[in-house]
Design goal:
- The protein is α/β, with parallel strands linked by helices and about 325 residues long.
- Helix content is about 40%, strand content about 15%.
- Strands 2-1-3-4-5-11 form a 6-stranded parallel beta sheet, sandwiched between helices. A 4-stranded parallel beta sheet has the order 7-6-8-9, sandwiched between helices.
- The longest helix is centred in the last third of the chain and has 17 residues.
- The radius of gyration is 24 Å and the shape is elongated.
């Protein structure tokens, strides 16, 4: 038979309430008492009865996290932080990906409305067609990313400001012909791509550099494969730029691959900078300069907002902007 809270309490020599406090979190328990309870939990292989817990407090003990895709290093690192930090709060995390399809967002919202999850962390790529276009009937939800619905809690990095600073940094190194890789195609522009391109344009304008449309390299997807294919095709028809601003590190890896395969020296001939500072960026050849921000702080802020929203559905929406910084490594140099 499955062990109960009373079994654990008897073995640890504490009350059932103390066991519940250790299992559910949120209440301070003395370290020595917590240690005894955790030892008893492990010894009895105790598994919480989430169904019973949900019946008592109206909650499932689970939240859903959805990202446009799960294959990139950035998505994997962000998801890992959400899972680890949610676990500390007594939540399990259901992971899903939308493929930028609003219909799949709607499925997640329906799941939350049916109380299968207590709240949602959504990463929509655009507001058009998104379930976030209206606040009506929306369960506790936090948006991560640059889509900006005024009625929903949100956590994001200031992509526009960061892109403007990247451009200014490259200009300060003596670069003038700066290509951007990851711009949106005519169809399917995302909020992030639009903001990073706007920041790039602002950086050029501030430096008194006229923008050259031919230095814009659009991509159908922000993957290393798509970046390598798209940048190679662009390079076949254009001269080398002074520098490349890749809108993500995954894109930058594709750019570095193409340049290396053609014998182009980085940064002697072309500087390259990315965005996100994924774990592999520091180990690229050469090590990739990039925009860095604290993903633990990002996930913590989102979970803090979600906790508040679950407890108080009427709280005013809040937006948290996570600080960023430019990390200069071997892939950029003065011209």
């Amino acid at each position: 038979m499955r062990a109960t809270v009373r079994d654990v309490a008897a073995l640890a020599g504490v009350s059932p309430k103390t066991v519940s406090n250790v299992v559910n979190g949120g209440v301070v328990v003395r370290p020595e008492t917590r240690s005894r309870v955790e030892h008893a939990l492990a010894q009895l292989d105790y598994v919480p009865n989430l169904s019973a817990r949900g019946l008592r407090n109206g909650r499932s003990g689970a939240i859903a996290l959805t990202l446009p895709e799960m294959a990139s290093a950035y998505s994997a690192e962000l998801a890992q932080w959400f899972v680890e930090l949610a676990r500390e709060r007594g939540w399990t995390v259901q992971l899903d990906q939308t493929g930028s399809d609003p219909a799949r967002e709607q499925e997640l919202v329906s799941r939350a409305r049916a109380h299968l999850v207590d709240g949602l962390v959504l990463n929509p790529t655009s507001l058009s067609g998104s379930v976030l276009a209206s606040a009506e009937g929306l369960p506790p939800t936090v948006v991560i990313g640059e889509v900006e619905p005024e009625h929903v809690d949100q956590v994001h990095v200031d992509s526009r400001a960061a892109a403007e600073q990247v451009t200014a940094h490259l200009v300060s190194l003596g670069h003038r012909r700066i290509a951007i890789v990851g711009a949106a195609l005519a169809e399917g522009a995302t909020a992030t791509s639009e903001l990073r391109e706007a920041g790039y344009a602002a950086g050029l304008a501030a430096a008194g550099i006229e923008r050259d449309p031919s230095l814009r390299v659009p991509l159908p997807a922000w993957t290393t494969r798509a970046a390598a294919t798209g940048f190679a095709a662009w390079l076949d028809a254009h001269p080398l730029p002074d520098a490349v601003f890749a809108f993500t590190d995954s894109i930058a890896f594709g750019v570095l691959h193409v340049l290396a395969s053609r014998g182009v020296r980085v940064p002697e001939q072309v500087s390259v900078i990315g965005f996100d500072d994924v774990d592999g960026a520091a180990y690229a050849i050469p090590a990739l300069s990039t925009v860095s921000f604290d993903r633990r702080a990002f996930a913590t802020a989102a979970l803090d907002l979600l906790t508040r929203r679950i407890e108080d559905r009427e709280a005013l929406p809040e937006t948290v902007v996570i600080p960023h910084r430019i990390v200069s490594r071997a892939s950029t140099a003065r011209r």
